[in-house]
Amino acid sequence: MKSxxxxxxxxxxxxxxxxxxxKVQNEINKTKIPAVVMGKVTKDGNMEFYSxxxxxxxxxxxxxxxxxxxxxxxxxxxxxxAALQLVxxxxxxxxxxxxxxxxxxxxxKILSKENQIVNPQKSITLRHLLTHTAGFGYGFTSIKLSxxxxxxxxxxxxxxxxxxxxxxxxxxxYGTNIDWVGRLVENISGMNLEDYFRDYITGPLEMxxxxxxxxxxxxxxxxxxxxxxxxxxxxxxxxxxxRSKTTSFNAxxxxxxxxxxxxxxxxxxxxxxxxNCSYTFLYKMVHIVL
Length: 290
Description:
Layout: E1 2-6, E2 8-13, H1 21-30, E3 36-41, E4 47-52, E5 69-70, H2 75-88, H3 103-106, E6 110-111, E7 117-118, H4 126-130, H5 143-146, H6 148-155, H7 177-189, H8 193-200, E8 225-229, E9 235-237, E10 256-257, H9 259-270, H10 281-287
Parallel strand pairs: 2-3
Antiparallel strand pairs: 1-8, 3-4, 5-10, 6-7, 8-9
């Protein structure tokens, strides 16, 4: 079996003036991953990055903070910001039932601990989605979902979607909750996420290399990736291929971005009152579990 291994991008918050370049470079040199970018971001906007390896297999270059990666679940932070901007504008609250906004989500049935298929009794709210307490999971956070193709036949599941794993607000499971947050943002704003992010988050922050669909003139900056063979542990280099364009934008994991762009987002988080993308969403995110 194989699993996808992207070239890794790591950005850490560092508030002190300690020079960590040597420590970071030592750690990079220890790894067997062919290419990596690591960096630090400070509240005053200073960014330092350290790199090793090529941006694509066969290239005679060094990957850097301007290269474009698939950022997977790091997309979730921007999706959450988008939703909280709408809360900030009074277009929805954290605790409004989402039945009318997302009826297809609200009707998803629950698979109980006893493997009984039950109808939900409570409405899902934005607070539930943002805190991963709505019942949605991933294959790597739920044993049942990890073996779903086999398990659904055992329990007689005849629906074309995967179940929620518990009633909203009763437990926690990391899952596809922010995917639904993205759909909520699109429904309320009347915009697709690509346009919404550009107008209200990535555009104002000048994150000009952050897209669901990377523009053709930036394609040369997109990195390649490899697969790790789970049996041998060896990394197999994939031939580079351009990512297909999409019209279905996933707030849970669809963005591509650069270390430098995402660093701008982190600086915004550290200086929230000065940030153009939103003024109080961080306060709301901190208090959202209360």
